[in-house]
Amino acid sequence: MRFYIFLDFDGPLFNRRSEWRRVEGDAGVARGLGVHPFFKYWRMDPVLVGWLQEEKRKHPEVFVVISSSWANPRMNSKEVIESLLSRNGLDPREVLAQDWSVYGLEEGGQEKGGGWVRGVKIYRWLERNDPEARQGGRYLVLDDESSGTGLSTAEDVAKCDLDPRCVVLCDEEEGYSEEALRGLSEFVDKKISYRSGGKKEPEGS
């Protein structure tokens, strides 16, 4: 039984906190990692990185799937994404799902079409890899209010056949607060503990 975190980059990982960490020469480091020239940065938000590290430590069955346009093969290869994660303290061999990106499914449409397209890609990824996880709500979509447009209301999320409780958007500039991440940890703990213990999860959880 696995739990999946669908992870956007800009907003959740690249935000004001990561911007404060940038130093002269970072653009050169990004080029050295093979990052697409459109992106001049590589340092991620240490708060969210630490949260991901802790969730993986507590729950080895938690895996990350990249839903960001950074993982679009026209922008960055898997090897580049792995190098980027590794440089920020996340071991891709441990944290990434085997089917590591939603961009394996191009029938979701063009990214510029709006956030609902990303939601369709996530739905199709779950249906292909682990439909029981989708049915049981064993996933989180971490995105921002900009690229996540179309996932901001329960009605929009429902159009993608996703659970609105599993979609948590952050402010594009601020990222996730520590309080918000504590809430997300409780969500993951509850989902995994109920399923692992063979108990039925209460209604509305």
What structural category do the secondary elements indicate? Answer: alpha/beta
Largest sheet: 5 strands, parallel
N-to-C terminal Cα separation, in Å?
18 Å
Number of strands: 5
Tally of individual helices: 9
Specify Rg, calculated over alpha carbons.
16 Å
Arithmetic mean of pLDDT = 88
Description:
The chain has 205 residues and is an alpha/beta fold. The protein has nine helices and five strands; from the N terminus they run βαααβααβααβαβα. It has a five-stranded parallel β-sheet. Strand 4 (139-144), helix 8 and strand 5 (167-170) form a beta-alpha-beta unit. Helix 3 packs parallel to helix 9. The chain is globular.
Question: Can you describe this structure in just a few lines?
Answer:
This protein is α/β, with parallel strands linked by helices. The protein has helices at 16-20, 26-32, 46-58, 78-87, 92-95, 115-129, 131-136, 154-159, 178-196; strands at 3-7, 62-66, 96-101, 139-144, 167-170.
Key features of this structure:
205 residues
